[in-house]
Specification:
The complex is a heterodimer of chains A (970) and B (458). Chain A is an alpha/beta fold. Chain A is built from 30 helices and 38 strands. The longest helix of chain A is centred in the first third of the chain and has 17 residues. The chains are: A alpha/beta (970), B mainly alpha (458). Chains A and B meet through strand 29, helix 24, helix 25 and strand 33 of A and helix 5, helix 6 and helix 11 of B.
């Protein structure tokens, strides 16, 4: 080397040091051993090796090594095993009422909500809102900082100013200090508020919930003189009359009611006892009504009279002849006294509630099927009066400090109150909220709230059970809870949620507190804290219905949106895109009218109408809803937000603008055709079964006469030239009981959450590209005035002879030896042939890169790590939650035991409030699903095509009142 | 000749081999006419649409089209079947009519073959780019040993399609090129420009016209004709399997293979006619592509058109006869559903219009034939739309019924392939002899080739 001219270049330190090894290495043509390979090395072997090294050289480019240093846990947290989720018990609340949930957590990030099977309000199920709450947790549009007039501030800065306010007010005993919250059932929070009230005796606490239960309380006051709570026991009810209620999908306790009713109806098909009968008397179609044995459509103005007529008939007086159904219904009720139930709707007038209480009393149902308890709410007040008082005080300048803890009153307060106008007169306004929304806009101080899944707290369930909320994750944006804000007001700005919660419960349970708290935390609720049943006797006389004023206009019924509720979930894509029950609309609300009314107004779907009520006019698109009473318009509120976030802004129309304090649930309005249209996105355009035997229905009577009536409708091919595949091991199957499905959509959202299904937006839904792996098909039967509604959940049928499999040119969709039709995403090239050839059209295609959003840092946390996030151009569909099957299989193998029936729950099955879906091994004759498949009601959808579906349906059975049927026909 | 006495000749009288050669080679060797530049520019511009659409497809994938669930195949596949169908006339003319010794094919086979090739090229765009992940479809559709240990799924008609279409493209290209060799040699010899001499010379592959060359040529051409003959039937049969193997009402029908083949030949001849009529006009080739050719093609169109009409009839009959609810609804929807007007238009184009071809007067009218051929081309496109979209948009479960509206990107892709086709066509007519020179020489009067070619003589 040194002999070379020029600067000294050296190739390595060894060379530089001029070691003999290096000298030797240089001397050899190849490095040591390289030239000492077996002399048999031929040209061929050389090519092999060089080929291999080339291939390996390529490999190094495949994996990008992370550049950051990876730091292992210094102290390994207990039980955190990557790939192994943990479940924590907490709660999801809606309008204050808690449902116990278990949240799946993967190495510290919550990914999926399940119902808490031990919790009395859940029994393992949840509604769609709880399912979607996980998306709200990670919502990148949530407010992320504390601000004052838009400038970022710190928590201590806020606490200091708040304490200063409290100090000022203390001098005047709290005069002018107000608190506004949504409905509070939380014992800890209520105690804190009372603590503050003790400090500031003249301060006042107002509550406002846009979809509140004022009428329930008013009805109870009317009947019993106090706002007692009623809960129902459907498991003992043979005859149920709903007076405009939607007991199975709306309101606290609905999950439990739905389960009990569905179970009874299901078991009546096998057992010997009589099936239950459900009369739905409705002013607008509901999901529960779709399940009813009889559905009677009424104008809202007639509801009171109808309830009075029913009461008169039950009491043996002559009934109002304008309701021909009353006599049969009353006779049925009387025949089942003590085992019947009359349920008033949450939005029904107070008088109807009172009449329902009287009816239940007259039928000796009180204490049997209708259980009375003390109120669940911490402070049951007439919230409308409470808010009205606050607004008038604000307008009069009597409010100096207002703390708004949650809610969104600037958006959802009655339009005629002038909440915002009053709010602007308050000197110090602070708002705790998840979003920097319509209310925060008018509050100089905005404190970002911690999501329920990041917060410590408690709340009561529908039966009063105290439920503990524990955080699954540190607040992503350092949010605060109402409890913490109040503690700050009381001079403890540094107090943590957990300490505050513990402090509260320590006072209640001083003995053995640690064990008590640990157990409650573990279970998710405080054992035995349900409110005991109490005996009350209705006292009041219910005012007779006013003579129906022949109003010129139409009646407008206000309801919460089935997707985004009162608007609080507007920025939740899952809830925006879920096809609403009955209408199958997504991303919008509409003015729902009957066909006859639409004709009279000269409008069709998507045409705009101007609805004028109380001086305000709202232009909304029309969507015809069969079963809607004539001259009644139903509007869902919650849409039309302006500061919801990127997802929720500008969807639908704001029905709150028509909602006045005098008519929160019902208004009289004039409706005119406005000209023009708004495009709406629906996922189902056709509601007629076209004479095909898709949903098979019958009555219990027909079933008794001919148990195989459903199977007889189509001939199923049985002969085959070739022997079928033999499924030796497991053979997975799913049975869907159509008698139970309410169409509540919980399964749709659960599936979306479990399987990382993207949302695609209104435009794409309009193009017919919705991605839900499970959909609820809805068909109508009979006249459009009051049709029968049939819901049918449809997911992949996992056909044993799957038409999709033979046509895929690259074998991306294949059959497993357990009978699951599997999608191999990374093999799919997206010819879409499989979807074309699928008779059920359950396959979904990534027409665009729908998962783009998932690249947002916070949303990457959301995905289920056990399910592939699909690329653009790839087909996808239900796979019976194969990841859950495999997880259970691994567990069973480790424990060296066979899989147990019921060990694997698909996401849709687990969440279903009515247990309508049952998954399992059809090869195991003792499994639930195998037994269901053997039932005579069991049939396969389009089985006549010889697809041999693994998903099968049990025909829908109803129990109509023969007497009433005759009357309806005659 | 008495049987043909009243027929126009296949070549105008008075031509000798020399004048034939002069006339046809002049088209290539003379100065480029101005209209060619205009035509090529327009076609090439349209072809750019194809490339823009492909770029967009690769970035965003097929969501830019109007397809959805249930209609996951839209006019992309309509266009594919249409283009493949058009190609068929070329193969039929060059292979089957060669074997049947139909001399009248001589003057149209060259550009009909070229048309086949270009139509297959256009169709291939759809095969590849209708997929969601084109970058993988490029090679995953082919059976090749790989480390993943997976093969394509040989039960899938799409797989068969890949073989059928690629075989078709290969054979057609070979057949076309082999047939060109003697003419390329003629051009090499007549070309005055050094570039033409070299290029044509290389392409002529050393053709010197020796007896051995001619012998080899004849053997190769017969063999290729033999190979290509089954393709006339098989390719569109396989394409029809894409649908017939499916379970969807409106697809699942045993009549599809013959019905599709007839439709393909029908549309193929219509396209040959559409191209031949302006071509003979602008190049003054009326003497070579005579009324005889146009009449013969019109007769074939009429015959195949009747087969296609029979197919429509059988579909209606079978729906009624099967007693199958789904089939019956499919026909009901086809006629009275939201796309009913397309079906009506289809009958107008494909069944009613060709009936005019019964009239000799129409068969003798160049303008009339041109119009009819264009209408048939449109009709055959509509037929594929009816089969694909109307069947898919309402199948078994009414809950999943939907509608399909093509977007501008659907159309841009279609227009783009038209651009590609015509660009290639323009290049072809400019740089290669549109009519086979040496075969035309063979049918000039006085040349006894006619007898060899099997022309019936009294």
């Amino acid at each position: 080397m040194k002999t070379l001219d020029g600067p000294d270049f050296w190739r390595s330190l060894e060379e530089y040091a001029d070691t003999p090894e290096f000298a030797e290495q240089l001397g050899r043509e190849f490095p040591q051993y390289a030239s000492e390979w077996d002399a048999g090395v031929s040209r061929r072997r050389f090519l092999e090796l060089s080929g291999a090294s080339l291939a390996l050289a390529g490999l190094t480019a495949c994996v990008k090594q992370p550049r950051e240093g990876l730091v292992p846990y210094v102290k390994q947290p207990e039980e955190v095993i990557p790939g192994r989720p943990l479940f924590f018990a907490t709660a999801s609340t809606l309008s204050g009422y808690a449902t116990g949930i278990l949240v799946e957590s993967h190495t510290g990030r919550p990914t999926k909500v399940e119902g808490n099977p031990e919790h009395p309000a859940s029994l393992g199920a949840t509604d769609l809102f709880a399912q979607a709450s996980i998306l709200s947790l990670y919502d990148p549009d949530r407010s992320q900082t504390i601000t004052k007039l838009g400038q970022i501030r710190t928590w201590p800065a806020f606490a200091e100013e708040l304490q200063a306010r409290v100090k000022t007010h203390r001098a005047i005993f709290g005069e002018g200090f107000r608190l506004l919250t949504p409905t509070v059932t939380s014992p800890a929070l209520a105690a804190k508020i009372r603590e503050l009230n003790a400090l500031l005796p003249k301060a006042r606490w107002h509550q406002w919930e846009p979809a509140g239960r004022d009428l329930v309380r008013a009805g109870a006051r009317l009947a019993f003189g106090q706002p007692i709570e009623t809960r129902y026991d459907f498991s003992k009810a043979d005859v149920i009359v709903s007076l405009d209620a939607d007991p199975f999908t709306f309101g606290p306790g609905s999950l439990v009611y739905a389960r009990a009713f569905a179970r009874r109806r299901r078991e009546a098909a096998t057992g010997s006892f009589a099936p239950p009968r459900y009369y739905a008397i409705e002013t607008t179609p509901t999901s529960s009504g779709a399940l009813a044995d009889h559905r009677i459509s009424l104008k809202p103005s007639e509801l009171h009279a109808a309830a009075a007529a029913l009461f008169a008939a039950v009491a043996g007086k002559s009934a109002d002849s304008s309701f021909p159904w009353v006599a049969s219904c009353a006779a049925d009720l009387i025949a089942h006294a003590g085992r019947s139930l009359v349920i008033p709707g949450e939005h029904a007038p107070a008088e109807v509630h009172a009449l329902a209480h009287l009816l239940n009393d007259a039928l000796s149902n009180l204490g049997a099927t209708a259980i009375l308890t003390d109120p669940v709410e911490a402070e049951p007040v007439d919230q409308l009066a409470s808010l009205t008082a606050l607004v008038s005080d604000m307008k009069a300048g009597r409010v100096d400090t207002l703390l708004i803890l949650g809610g969104n009153p600037a958006f959802d307060a009655p339009a005629d109150l002038g909440f915002v106008e009053g709010l602007k007169k308050v000197a110090f306004r602070a708002r705790l909220g998840l979003y920097d929304d319509e209310t925060s806009q008018y509050c100089p101080w905005h404190v970002n709230e911690a999501h329920e899944l990041e917060a410590w707290g408690d709340a009561r369930a529908f039966d009063g059970t105290v439920t503990i909320l524990q955080p699954l994750i540190e607040p992503l944006y350092g949010g605060k809870t109402a409890l913490e804000v109040l503690a700050a007001a009381l001079g403890q700005p540094a107090a943590k949620g957990l300490d505050l919660l513990r402090a509260h419960w320590q006072k209640q349970h001083p003995d053995g507190f640690d064990a008590f708290f640990r157990k409650s935390l573990h279970d998710g609720f405080v054992e035995g804290s349900a409110l005991p049943a109490r005996a009350f006797k209705p006292v009041a006389n219910v005012p007779a219905p006013a003579a129906a004023a022949d109003a010129a206009g139409l009646e407008v019924v206000f309801r919460t949106d089935p997707g985004i509720f009162d608007g609080r979930f507007a920025n939740n894509g899952w809830l925006q895109e879920v096809p609403k029950p009955l209408t199958k609309l997504t991303w919008d609300n509409a003015a729902h009218v009957s066909l006859a009314t639409a004709k009279r107004l000269g409008v069709k779907n998507e045409d705009l109408v101007a609805i004028t009520a109380g001086g305000a006019t709202l232009t909304a698109p029309v969507w015809i809803l069969p079963g809607q009473p004539d001259d009644v318009v139903t509007l869902h509120f919650g849409h039309g937000r302006t500061r919801a976030g990127r997802v929720g802004n500008g969807t639908g129309v704001n029905a709150y603008r028509l909602r006045a304090a005098t008519g929160l649930w019902l208004a009289t309005a004039s409706v005119q055709k406005a000209g023009g249209t708004t495009e709406l996105a629906t996922t189902q355009h056709h509601f007629n079964m076209e004479g095909r035997h898709l949903v098979r229905t019958g009555t219990f009577e027909e079933y008794r006469k001919d148990p195989e009536f459903a199977r007889r409708l189509e001939e199923v091919p049985t002969i085959s030239l070739y022997p079928g595949f033999k499924y030796d091991g497991h053979a997975w199957g799913l049975a869907v009981n159509l008698s139970s499905c309410t169409g509540c959509n919980a399964c749709v959202v659960a599936c979306q959450s479990e399987n990382n299904i993207p949302t695609i937006g209104k435009e794409e839904v309009r193009r017919g590209r919705e991605m839900h792996w499970i959909r609820i098909d809805r068909y109508y039967e009979g006249s459009p005035d009051n049709p029968l509604v049939h819901n049918q959940p449809v997911m992949c049928m996992h056909c044993e002879q799957a038409p999709c499999e033979v046509v895929c040119p690259v074998a991306a969709t294949t059959h497993s030896e357990e009978g699951i039709n599997e999608m191999t995403y990374n093999r799919c090239i997206g010819t879409k042939y499989c979807s074309n050839n699928c008779p059920y059209k359950v396959r979904r295609f990534n027409f665009f890169d729908y998962n783009k959003d998932k690249h947002l840092p916070v949303l990457t946390l959301l995905a289920n790590p056990n399910v592939t996030v699909r690329q653009k151009g790839v087909m996808e569909k239900c796979n019976y939650c194969i990841q859950r099957v495999n997880r259970a299989r691994m567990d069973a193998e480790k424990e060296n035991r066979p899989l147990r029936d019921g060990e694997i729950l698909t996401a849709c099955q687990q969440v279903c409030p009515t247990e309508a879906l049952v998954f399992g091994d059809i090869n195991d004759p003792t499994s639930k699903v195998a037994k269901l498949r053997n039932e005579k009601l069991n049939y396969g959808l389009l089985e006549e095509l010889n697809t041999r579906p693994r998903t099968t349906y049990l025909a829908k059975l109803t129990n109509p009142n023969e007497d009433l049927l005759r009357k309806e026909e005659g | 000749m008495s049987a043909n006495a009243d027929r126009p000749p296949v070549i105008a009288p008075g031509y000798t081999p020399a004048t034939v050669t002069d006339k046809i080679s002049a088209v290539v060797l003379n100065k480029t006419p101005r209209w060619w530049y205009v035509g090529f520019a327009i076609s090439f511009l349209a072809a750019q649409l194809l490339f823009i659409t492909i770029a967009k497809l690769l970035v965003l994938t097929v969501g830019i089209w109007g397809i959805n669930i249930p209609v996951a195949w839209g006019i992309d596949i309509v266009n594919f079947v249409w283009w493949i169908g058009i190609g068929h006339a070329g193969t039929l003319i060059s292979a089957i009519l060669l074997l049947l010794r139909q001399t009248w094919r001589t003057s149209i086979n060259r550009f009909a073959e070229a048309m086949t090739l270009f139509a297959v090229a256009a169709a291939a765009q759809f095969v590849l780019f209708h997929t969601g992940r084109q970058w993988l479809a490029v090679y995953w559709l082919f059976p090749y040993p790989n480390t993943m240990g997976v093969w394509p799924q040989f039960r899938s008609p799409l797989m068969w399609d890949v073989f059928a279409v690629s075989t078709y493209a290969t054979i057609s290209a070979l057949f076309w090129f082999v047939g060109l060799i003697p003419d390329l040699a003629t051009l090499r010899d007549r070309s005055k420009h050094w570039f033409g001499k070299i290029t044509y010379g290389m392409l002529a592959m050393g053709w010197r016209g020796s007896a051995r060359h001619w012998h080899n040529y004849e053997t190769a051409s017969l063999l290729l004709a033999g190979l290509a003959t089954p393709l006339v039937v098989s390719v569109h049969t396989v394409v029809s399997f894409d649908f017939a193997v499916g379970i969807i009402p409106g697809w699942h029908a045993t009549i599809f293979p013959p019905y599709f083949v007839a439709g393909a030949i029908y549309s193929g001849f219509a396209m040959v006619m559409t191209l031949a009529i302006p071509l003979r006009k602008v190049f003054g080739l009326e003497d070579f592509i005579t009324m005889r050719h146009l009449q013969n093609m019109a007769k074939i169109m009429l015959a195949t058109g009747l087969i296609v009409a029979y197919g429509y009839g059988i579909e209606l009959f079978m729906a009624w006869y099967s007693g199958n609810t789904f089939e019956q609804y499919m026909i009901h929807n086809r006629i009275l559903g939201p796309y009913g007007w397309i079906w009506l238009l289809l009958l107008l184009c494909n069944v009613l219009t060709p009936q005019f071809l019964w009239l000799k007067k129409v068969r003798n009218s160049v303008l009339g034939l041109f119009f009819i051929s264009i209408i048939v081309n449109i009709g055959m496109w509509l037929e594929r739309f009816v089969i694909i979209v109307t069947s898919l948009h309402r199948d078994f479960l009414p809950s999943s019924w939907g509608m399909y509206t093509p977007t501008r990107w659907d159309w841009s892709f279609f227009v783009g392939t038209l651009g590609l086709f015509f660009s290639l066509m323009f290049l072809f007519i400019r740089f290669l002899p549109v009519i086979s020179i040496f075969e035309m020489r063979g049918i000039t009067t006085g040349h006894d080739f006619e007898e060899q070619a099997g022309e019936v003589k009294p």
